[in-house]
Request: fold
Amino acid sequence: MRRTALYGLYGLALATPLHLPCPLAPPRRRPDVRLRAGKGASFAALRPRTGGGRPSGKWFTWRRLATGATYLRWTGLFEFLVSADGRDIRFHRLPRATPESLSAYLLGQVLSFSLLAFGMEPLHGTVVVIDGEAIGFLGDCGYGKSTLGAAFLRLGFPILTDDLMVVEPTSSGYAVHPGMPRIKLFPSVARPVLGVARPGPRLNDGTSKQILPLHDGQAFHRPAPLRALYVLGDPKRAPSDLAGHTRVDRLSGGEALLEVIKGSFNSMVVNRDRLTRQFVFASRLAATIPVNRLSYLRDLSLLPAVCEAVLADLA
Reply:
């Protein structure tokens, strides 16, 4: 395995022997998190087992250990151990893992446990940069965040982060830290929206969703001030009167607060300290940054009009 390098991601300095396609952190900065390979024998003792003594066949398993550490496992792909303070993450590859899928899970769901341990509240969103400002799209899995981000990318607006969104308060509001320079899309979206002909690596062998790397002109590599948030609703419940139109509705304080809480990235950690911090964070963010509901029919041909509606709203 190669020598350890120090990368800058989500506002953190990550020390790891893995090769990550993101900028290096300042050389004199101390690492916030160390990502390194663990021994298979050590992980074997942590695996949940069925009554017959065989490892559990569940697709995803996680549990908090008596030490305060967190164990996570995706069957056949990899397993992780996050220390109680979030500063050490051990990973173990299983037979079906690829380097791309390992990085995607490690620097998403797994790293969110470290962020929470540091007192940070990650959001589930895709962020584009328009005129130097961050515009965030929040929504559940399958609601079209990445697809809409790809539509803005086609118009020339770079991606700041996709999937995991780390927001930090500043003296003048909030800033969003850059994430991995990649976007995750289904081929049925990547081809018509971005013109991607060659398939990228799959997120896992149970989905056709691809991990598409972004070059320098497509990715934004420094923090950007947060201008606005747009909440995407359930595409299956889109109002029937929308037709080909896009509707932007400003949310009131209470509605905005609830939508920011719903947009939390990690819903597994629900202890009292985390829930209290989550409420305070969401309250302050919703009181400072405009939160809007974005309603539109999920039709790829309508995406340019959706982008124009967002741009007009910002103007």
In short: The two ends are 50 Å apart (CA to CA). The chain has a mean pLDDT of 92.
